[in-house]
């Protein structure tokens, strides 16, 4: 029995009745199957495993209304969407803001809220190692474990897994992350970034060390919501990014 057939058999008992629920289920299962196929095709080819390249040029981006915020389940490596850039410190410091995912809901398997954590963060394929605060970069590490320290202290990354006040540090570090409006110049307390997972990257330009722009940022993040039943229920019932099917129309037990 194939992976898709197995999920369809599970889903046939999850949804009561027919029509919309069945169509949503088939769409969700097809998406999961395509994701599985893509992972198999691209196995070993994500940015965290490719040979890093030096990148010391400034980057310009054009705003697009077509950019969409993904919903990530399980573990994923993503570049996110650049949604705000701020200049400060006499034009020598830039803040780059990346939205990575929607915050997902409650897992029906254990009635616990899903939690998204940050694992490794990469700059053009180099893994960022942080100081004890989990924010200030201490070194960049290549695939062979060689460390580059000349940019130490000039790159900072603040991570948020639940809006502007939901600051967290990457796994393995300890520290306190201030609200995003205390980090990004010009942001106000009312800018909540409600129900979003995002990151802010600060770069101090140091031309002597060729630190004159932003690298290709990728974020290895992990969501505790990963079971097929939890995922199907979340994407089916969520009124923000899902189908918004009433919970009373779903047979969850």
What's the gist of this structure?
The chain is an alpha+beta fold and 253 residues long. The chain is 17% helix and 26% strand.
Keywords:
disordered N terminus, single chain, six-stranded antiparallel β-sheet, alpha+beta, globular, 17% helix, 253 residues
Radius of gyration: 20 Å
- Strand arrangement, major sheet: 1-11-4-5-6-7
Number of separate strands: 11
Bin the helical content. Answer: 10-25%
Quaternary structure classification: single chain
Terminus-to-terminus distance: 24 Å
Number of domains: 1
- Beta-strand residue percentage: 25-35%
Largest sheet: 6 strands, antiparallel
- What structural category arises from helix and sheet content? alpha+beta
Shape: globular
Mean pLDDT: 83
Enumerate how many helices there are, as a single number.
Answer: 3
Order of helices and strands: HHEEEEEEEEEEEH
Low-confidence stretches: 1-34, 40-58
